[in-house]
Specification:
CATH class: Alpha Beta
Distance between the termini: 29 Å
Strand order of the largest sheet: 1-2-4-3-5-6-7-8
CATH architecture: 3-Layer(aba) Sandwich
Radius of gyration: 16 Å
Number of domains: 1
């Protein structure tokens, strides 16, 4: 069991809890981008808003996921948090949970204390390495994340999973970076473990078509069984 994988954003202490205005924001640590945050226009009207934390792939590549997610979020009142990994990829892929898990925890807490987030609709998603990380970290924190969205994952690391989040996995049939079998095997494994899994195969390579984002986020916003 890796306790470094457990997230508790409610325990984060933020001195300044002023809400962000609607729109797209870039958080910087010095001269380095720390995260992109999108706040929908309805967030300031006392309405609970759904939240998606979206993780990029290696070297910051997202396969087109972020732009498609932001377009959907603007139409459907979803807040989006897109943190940047400390290194070229996420900490689990570099040896174990650590600074990236803590950064995600802090940013989630930072948002939850500023906005009325619907805690019944909080998703962790990602592309490529970010998808593998989202599956692995998300299943370890299934009491926090109601949904996990994995676009073209390479693997899933099951270590003392908690809760029963819904899982969405997509993969391109002609992916030459991470073959289709990676997503298929992850979906089959999680289905056998008792998770509610939706697998979406598409004609294409190592990328995230807008239509796949629409399917994934429409499911995210739907009621849980």
């Amino acid at each position: 069991m890796d306790d470094n994988a457990r997230l508790n954003p409610q325990a984060i202490d933020c001195e300044d809890v002023a809400a962000l205005p609607a729109g797209l924001h870039k958080l910087m640590l010095g001269d380095k981008l720390n995260a992109v945050i999108y706040i929908p226009s309805a967030a300031g009207r006392g309405r609970k808003i759904s939240l998606l934390c979206l993780l990029h792939g290696a070297f910051g590549k997202d396969g087109g996921a972020l732009s498609a997610v932001l377009a959907f979020a603007a139409q459907h009142c979803i807040a989006v948090l897109a943190p940047q990994a400390v290194g070229t990829s996420w900490d689990l892929l570099r040896g174990g949970y650590g600074p990236d898990a803590r950064c995600i925890e802090y940013l989630l807490g930072w948002l939850v204390q500023r906005h009325t987030i619907d805690l019944e609709r909080v998703a962790l998603g990602g592309f490529s390495d970010g998808a593998s990380y989202a599956l692995s970290l998300g299943l370890r924190n299934g009491d926090l994340f109601t949904d996990i969205i994995a676009f073209s994952p390479g693997f899933v690391h099951l270590d003392d999973p908690i809760g029963q989040p819904r899982v969405f996995i997509s993969h391109g049939s002609s992916d030459t970076i991470l073959p289709l079998s990676c997503g298929q095997e992850a979906a089959l494994r999680l289905s056998r473990e008792g998770y509610v899994v939706h697998f979406e195969q598409f004609a294409g390579g190592h990328l995230v078509p807008a239509k796949i984002v629409d399917i994934a986020l429409t499911r995210f916003l739907s009621s849980h069984p």
